Amino acid sequence: MSENTPPSTPTPPSAPEPHGPPPTGYSPQPSGPTVAPMLESEARTWAMLVHIIAAAAIILSAGTLAFVAPLVVWLLYRERSALVDYHGKQNLNLQLTLLVVGISAIVIGLVTFTVGFLITLPALFAYGIYALVISIIAGVKANAGEYYPIGFTIRFIR
Predict the structure, then answer these.
(1) Fewer Cβ in 10 A, N or C end of the chain?
(2) pTM of the predicted model, to two decimals?
(3) Coil, strand, or helix at residue 21?
(4) pLDDT tens by residue, 15-42
């Protein structure tokens, strides 16, 4: 080396790729599953079934298991259709409210040594009839493609 040239700094070796180089022709796949949107007719059918199956479950299980059908349908199809998402939430809130009303009626009746049942059981029965009728009405509206809001519910899921 001559005295006029500065000493050269060694270049660091390039870092190897952690798993080796990608194979030729490789294109990365999108992360996570892709969800295909639902046809409008299929969305209307599933939105209607959310309400109709829940209405049948109100009768068959006295309202105790009526939340299961809307929950399953909503979890399966909420990302594929805004209509199914909306109606699933509406009916799930209705069924959960019915469940809370039923548990509250029993607790109040037991705490008041069965005297409270004179008020809470008729109220529970009336709300059960309301849930049954409004589920059928909402099912018809859902089949028409309408976003029908259900009143008199606690908004557990927004």
Answers:
(1) C
(2) 0.76
(3) coil
(4) 555 666 666 765 656 566 677 888 999 9
